[in-house]
Design brief:
Blueprint: H1 3-13, H2 16-56, E1 59-66, E2 68-81, E3 84-89, E4 94-99, E5 106-107, E6 112-116, H3 121-147, H4 153-179, E7 181-183, E8 188-191, E9 200-201, E10 206-212, E11 216-223, E12 235-240, E13 245-253, E14 263-270, E15 282-297, E16 303-304, E17 310-316, E18 319-324, E19 327-331, E20 334-338, E21 343-349, E22 361-364, E23 380-381
Parallel strand pairs: 1-22, 2-23
Antiparallel strand pairs: 1-21, 2-11, 2-15, 3-10, 4-6, 4-9, 5-8, 6-7, 8-10, 11-14, 12-13, 12-15, 13-14, 15-20, 16-17, 17-18, 19-20
Length: about 375
Amino acid sequence: MNSSASTPSLLEKKPYILAILITVILIVWMSSGMLFAESELDSTTSVKKKEEHHKKLPSVQITQFQSQDIQRSLELYGRTEPDRVVQLSAEVDGRVSKIFVNEGQVVKAGDKLVQLALEDKLAQLNYAKTLVKQRTIEFQGAQSLQAKGLQGESLLAQAEAALVEAQALVTLRETQVTKSTITAPFDGVLENQNIEIGSYVNKGQSLFDVVDLEPLVVRAYITENHVDSIKSDAEVNVKLVTGKTVKGKIRFISSISEVGTNTFPIEVEVANPEQKMKAGVSTEIDLMFAKESAIKVTPALLSLDKDGNLGVKTVIDDIVVFTPIDLIKAEQDGVWLGGFNGDTQVITRGQGFVRPGDKVITSLAITPSITPSITSTTKDLEQ
């Protein structure tokens, strides 16, 4: 008997074997379907959880700013003053015979300004010189007699004293003649003319004021918060009320503040070779500091933290970071903030709905909200 004939007889004899096989196949088939369903369910649940997680994170828009080197400056308000002012006075009595200059004229050191009438001064000088000759002869005679033993030391000393007195009188008369011509003590501008031709002046009477405007001095006051940060070699730009801007240099920083204001006087020296710039003119002074790395943002991006500090919110590794501002300068289209290096991601939309430490979803703005530009001056105002 072959194998094909023996199989039916076996199933006929033991029908439960067929039932077992069918049951096993059904169980395997149903189990595979349940595993697939569970896997699909787990996958769907995971996706939903991720979507729900993302839905819970706030979304903000960021703009990437590239830091640039900006020069910080301090702006002061000052006033031009002369380097020195001298009240030119008569050193001898006399009548004004000639005035060589006009009020407001620029003069050089040594220029003749006023001539006083000499009158009898020359005659007195000639008398003094003649007296010296007489006293010299008398002194020489006394020396000769004393050498021969015919005259004592006392008479010789008297003759010598008389000669010295005569010589002193010559010096006095020469000085009176010389001082009758008044000259400019230094380069400057003449102001406040107090005499006219024919006026009689006494010794010590004021004739002119000589004002030295080279260099021109700009005086300003700086607060106690900034005085220690100013260096004597700092770059200084001085803008006159006329709109003209000139270079200057610091020549003096006071060590004592003004009583009541706690501000320190400083003086800035400005070259004025032709003395055309005037004293008493209002000015703006820009004291320049070293360059610093900064970014430029619109003031609308500034916000307050819980302590009331003003700053900007940035994103680092999807975490919101609050950075207090260090204002370097302000311009019409934005402010420059120090303390940032390289690329900085600033939140430009949605910053009011997130707090420092929050994890956020970011989207990069297509264009920056403000275009950085570099200017040469800074505008920290100093009253």
